[in-house]
Amino acid sequence: MHKLLSAVTLFLTSFLVHAAVGDGDAVASAPVEMVDVGVVVLFVILFFGSIAWFFIQIWKNEKNTKQDQ
């Protein structure tokens, strides 16, 4: 019974929040800020480069650990 009451309370709370937000189309029609393509390319290069660097460092560390044993 306690779980049912908790579920109903959460449902009603989420319903009230959804009703308070109002019309969803107003949010969808908000203007979108444009981003320079160069910034996106730089972010992608740095993001995937840091991931690759991390895995290379792990691989080199494991390689050195195996040689020490």
Verbal overview:
The chain is built from 3 helices and no strands. The chain has 69 residues and is mostly helical. The chain has a domain at 36-69. The protein is flat. 0% of the residues are buried.
**What is the N-to-C succession of helices and strands?**
HHH
Number of strands: 0
Query: Given the helix and strand composition, which structural class is it?
Result: mainly alpha
| Estimated share of beta-strand residues | under 5%
The whole-angstrom Rg is: 25 Å
Shape: flat
What proportion of the residues is helical, as a percent range? over 70%
Distance between the termini: 60 Å
- Largest beta sheet, briefly? none
Oligomerization category of the chains in this entry: single chain
Spans where pLDDT lies below 50 across 5 or more residues = none
Mean pLDDT level: 82
Please report the number of helical segments.
3
List the SSEs and their pairings.
Elements: H1 2-21, H2 24-28, H3 37-68
How would you briefly describe this protein structure?
The chain is mainly alpha-helical and 69 residues long. It has 3 helices and no strands.
Task: Based on the model shown, name its key terms.
69 residues, mainly alpha, 3 helices, flat
